Amino acid sequence: MKSKKPFVWAHRGASGYCPENTLAAFKKAVEMNADGIELDVQLTSDGEMVICHDEEVDRTSNGKGWIKDMTFEAVRSLDFSYGKNEYRGAKIPTLREVFELIKPTKLLINVELKTGIVFYPGIEKKVIELTEEYDFMDRVIFSSFNHYTVKKIKELRPNAKCGFLYMDGTIDMPEYGKKHGIDALHPALYNLQFPGFMEDCFRNNLEVNVWPVNEEEHIALCCEAGVNAIITDYPDKASAFIGSMFETKQQI
Questions:
Q1: What is the C-alpha R_g of the chain?
Q2: What are the domain boundaries of the chain?
C-alpha cells in the first residue's frame, strides 16, 4: 500500500444518501468531510449551466425531455428528488449555486462537462469564466469523456487542471494523456487491473482519479495502487475505511 491516503470525492455529491447532483447531496458531502465533490454540467436552451448527469431529465426528475431543449425556468420547475420522498421538491441546481455552497469550504470540485452526446457550443468558456469569477481555478479540475472538450479548456487556459474521463479498452492511455498535455486520468475502476497502468501514470506524472469506488475491496485496491482520489457515492464510509486501513498499516 502506498504511503499517501487517496482523497475522497463525493460522486454527484453524497449520492448514496441524497438525490444525485442536488444541493442536498453536496451539503451532505460537506457534512461528511469529503475532500471534494464531483458534478456534471449541462446547458439549458437559454444558456444556464445546470447540474445533471443525464442529457435528459427523465431518470432523475418527474419530467421528460432533453435539457438542451428546455429553458432554465422549465427545467427548474421539475422535481429532482429522484424518488426520495424526504427530498420532495428538490430543484436542479446551477453551477453558480454549487460554487456558492462550496465557497466557504476547502473542497476540490471535479467539474465534468457533459459534451459526449450534446456538444453545447461555448460551454467551456462559460464554465471557465464562472470558475475564475469565484477564484476557483486552483480548486477545480475539469474533466470530460469528450477529450476535445478537455483540450479546448487547455487551449483557453493552459494552466487549468484537466483530466480525461474514459471507460475501458484503451491502449497506452498514460502515453495518450501525456501527449495531449493533461494532468490526470479518470478511469473506470476496472482499468486498474491492466498490467503496468499505475506505473505508467506515475512515470508520466499523471494523477489517477478513479470511479465509481463504493465497495471496501475496491477502496483497498485503490489504496494499494496509489491513486490520487476515489470518487464514491458514500464519502463517509470510504473515509472511515481508508482511515482504518492506514491505522492498521502504522500499527504493523
A1: 18
A2: 7-251
**Cα 57-59-60 angle, rounded to 5 deg:** 70
CA distance 210 to 187: 5
Pairing of strands 49-51, 36-43: antiparallel
Rounded distance between C-alpha atoms, residue 101 and residue 155, angstroms: 29
pLDDT in tens, 25-79: 999 999 999 999 999 999 999 999 999 999 999 999 999 999 999 999 999 999 9
The candidate with the shortest Cα–Cα distance to 26, out of 133, 79, 76, 99, is 99
Let me know: does 187 contact 173? Beta carbons within 8 Å.
yes
State the catalytic residues. Answer: 11, 53
Return the CATH number of the domain spanning residue range 7-251: 3.20.20.190
Residues of the chain with pLDDT under 70: 1, 249-252
User: Which of 185, 251, 189 shows the shortest CA–CA distance to 220?
Assistant: 189
Q: How far apart are CA 6 and CA 229, in angstroms?
A: 5
Of 226, 156, 245, 181, nearest to 164 (Cα)?
181
Give the integer Cα–Cα distance in Å for 20 and 104.
21
Residue 149 grid cell = 472538450
C-alpha cell at 203: 512515470
The total of other beta-carbon atoms located within 10 Å of residue 158's CB is: 9
SS3 for 114? coil
